[in-house]
What we know:
Blueprint: E1 17-27, E2 30-39, H1 60-160, E3 164-165, E4 174-175, H2 177-186, H3 196-199, E5 204-205, E6 216-219, E7 227-233, E8 236-240, E9 247-251, E10 259-262
Parallel strand pairs: 3-4
Antiparallel strand pairs: 1-2, 5-10, 6-7, 6-10, 7-8, 8-9
Amino acid sequence: MSHTAHIPSRRKPRRTASTWMLRTGVAGGVLSTLVVGAATGSANAAEPVSDTVELPTVTAELAGAAAKSTAATQQAALDYEQRSELKEQQDRAADTARKAAKKAKQEAERKAEAERKAEAAKAKKAEERASRSAERTTLSTASSSATGSAAAVMSFLEAQLGKAYVMGATGPSAYDCSGLTQAAFRTAGVDLPRVSQDQSTTGTPVSLDALKPGDLLFWGGVGSAYHVAVYTGDGQYIDAANPSKGVVKQNLSDYPPTSATRVL
Length: 264
């Protein structure tokens, strides 16, 4: 009789907790291990049983592909940064060029305006010089003309000395005071009013201290003068004085006038 040894059966303990250890893929070229545990409370928690599931190890081909993808991503990012920097440089250069062009335009406009003002000022000065020259010429001509006219008046009056005084006479053999002055100035191209009252309102008033040959002398008020004569220089004048004297040359100091005017 043979005996068979009795081997008691071994009962696998009841599992109360599970743990999975996952070795998984490549993220960004780095191998990572994720352990996830789930536990439930039980009376047999002191006898845990663990099952481990191992996934295939990452191959060299997969790692190489991941590295190439990462390198491509990094290169793309680098290319983008370079393009962005180049674009910024181009924008700054364009902005600088615009500002420089604007500044150059403004400077050209300022220069053109300054030149225009300078030309205008130069033209104005030339015009003023021409005007002053013309004025001097006119004054010189007028002075020469006045001198010539005064000389003509003086010459006429000298020729009338000794002629008779007749009230209302205008020449050529006799005169009254205003008839003599009217005839004398007519030789110089000046038409005086007929009577002394009106003659006293013609011409430009002058001081008795600044008389020139040819100035008219009056006795009485302006507009109401009762006598008129012509200053001949050297403190003398010629007039048709009165019936007893006729046309004579007299001294201002002997019979001073009250006013004078200049028509030449």
